[in-house]
Write a structure and sequence with these properties.
heterodimer; A: about 350 residues; globular; B: about 120 residues; mainly beta; four-stranded antiparallel beta sheet; four-stranded mixed beta sheet; elongated
Chain lengths: ~350, ~120
């Protein structure tokens, strides 16, 4: 009886704070999954462990190509209902076609995000944040920068559930996106010679590197000055968006078409992750298009995407991106999965 | 760190969190009448089946006609035998399109809400 009273009290307490009820990825009745290449607009308690990327990167000139595996982990925590902090890192394995395999961690990344607008009726949310790629915290042999990059950005999500009945089959569609500018703390660096530098250059040419850097800020467009060996680091416009068709939304709110598990929890998605150089002798856009499938369960989410470079500068082979994601607010609703300040 | 060690660490972390007892957000799994369906005769009840057990004191369901007027019997409740089922009785309804609105609290206090329509044929 006592436990029942405590439970009721907890429910009542949670209902007194309406925003607390939503938890991860909800705007009204719309559930937005955590996307892999596009930072979603939600502040949430979540853990991505691992995110794995496989990609073959072609060589340039006389340089060898590489086969790369990146294993990432990211933990995000709500400080308040609408303010969150996250930390992540990536362990890289770079296998050149000729030469020694390089392994090591990339720089640590810390981000803050604040959700300042939410419209449940129109399934819309907007947030702002900043990502800090902390220079010098990773291994240079796998391309970790010696300097930091700050990337302020705006994030948004919009479900199309408010479309009229005439186009009800489009209601499961949703779009999320982000736009930010990467500010490196150094305009240029001077690189040293040797194998380490060669490996680093290969890493920085990879579409994989570009895709990851899009989410967290970085230097996919670094240009090297042939006269003095200085590597210039331009400001970059980092932009990404995802288009999602939610089969759970279709089943629960539009039309029960008879989908059974596991298809009734699947969300086909296409992500576009791009970076455009703005100055310092660099130009053009690099990025990837990632079609894939997200399966959102009660407590975890599984996802797999193809990583298709948009042009030669972004790479010339298709990679694979996969993720296991945990909804900590569902797994630990009364401890780790709740905001620090309520 | 070897790749295999990292993989083992990831698997262990996954095992720890997935083996932890937990509830979650309650999603509408299926309904009767079904979401978006057309039925020949008026149902006597509307039954919603969710993915998680519900908190009876804070879970609601209503049925509205095309004008937005409530037409259910006002007795929406969580099924005593199965706490993942939400039920409301409806009187004999004339042909038309009806909207079911629900707002539920799962036993871990997460709130979800939604609505859908069904049609009674002429």
């Amino acid at each position: 009886m006592q436990s029942r009273c405590i439970q009721c009290a907890l429910v009542a307490l949670s209902l007194a704070v309406p925003a607390a009820a939503s938890g991860h990825g909800f705007a009204g009745k719309r559930f937005f999954p955590a996307t892999l290449a596009t930072e979603d607009p939600f502040v949430a308690d979540e853990l991505s462990l691992p995110t794995i990327l496989w990609q073959k990167v072609p060589g340039e000139g006389d340089g060898p190509g590489t086969r790369e595996t990146h294993v990432s982990a990211e933990f995000a925590k709500r400080i308040t209902e609408n303010l969150g902090v996250g930390i992540g890192t990536t362990y890289k394995i770079v296998r050149p076609d000729a030469g020694e395999t390089q392994r090591g961690f990339d720089n640590l990344e810390v981000h803050f995000k604040y959700a300042f607008y939410r419209n449940d009726a129109h399934e819309a949310i907007v947030s702002a944040g900043v990502d800090w790629d902390i220079g010098g915290t990773g291994a240079r042999r796998v391309g970790a920068e010696s300097f930091s990059t700050l990337t302020p950005a705006v994030f948004f999500g919009k479900g199309l559930g408010d479309l009229p009945d005439d186009v009800k089959w489009l209601r499961p569609l949703a779009i999320t996106g982000q736009v930010g500018v990467g500010f490196p703390t150094r305009s240029s660096t001077t690189t040293a010679g040797g194998d380490e530098t060669a490996t680093r250059a290969l890493v920085e040419r990879s579409a994989l590197h570009r895709s990851r850097e899009l989410r967290h800020g970085g230097h996919a467009h670094d240009a090297t000055d042939g006269d003095d060996g200085a590597e210039r680091h331009p400001h970059t416009l980092d932009w990404a968006f995802s288009i999602q068709y939610s089969l759970p939304y279709l089943q629960s709110f539009v039309q029960d078409v008879g989908l059974e598990a596991p298809f009734n929890r699947m969300i086909p998605v296409v992500e576009f992750a791009m970076s455009t150089a703005l100055d310092r002798g660099a130009s053009g856009t690099t990025g990837t298009v990632n079609p894939g499938i997200i399966w959102a369960g009660q407590n975890i989410q599984l996802a797999i995407e193809a990583v298709i470079p948009i042009n030669r500068r972004s790479g010339d082979s298709v990679g694979v991106l996969a993720q296991l994601h945990f909804f900590l607010d569902d797994l630990f609703p009364q401890t780790l999965g709740r905001p620090l300040i309520r | 760190m070897k790749t295999s060690r990292l993989a083992v660490a990831c698997l262990l972390a996954a095992a720890v969190v997935t083996c932890t007892p937990a509830a979650a957000h309650a999603f509408l799994d299926h309904a009767m009448p079904a979401v978006g369906s057309t039925v020949r005769t008026s149902p006597t009840t509307v039954r919603l089946a969710f993915s998680e057990p519900l908190e009876p004191a804070f879970s609601r369901v209503h049925v509205e006609d095309a004008a937005g007027k409530a037409v259910d019997a006002g007795d929406g409740h969580v099924d005593a035998a199965d706490h993942a089922i939400l039920v409301v009785a409806v009187p004999s309804l004339p042909p038309g399109t009806y909207r079911v609105r629900w707002r539920v609290v799962s036993i871990d206090t997460h709130v979800t809400e939604g609505d859908y329509t069904f049609t009674i044929a002429q």
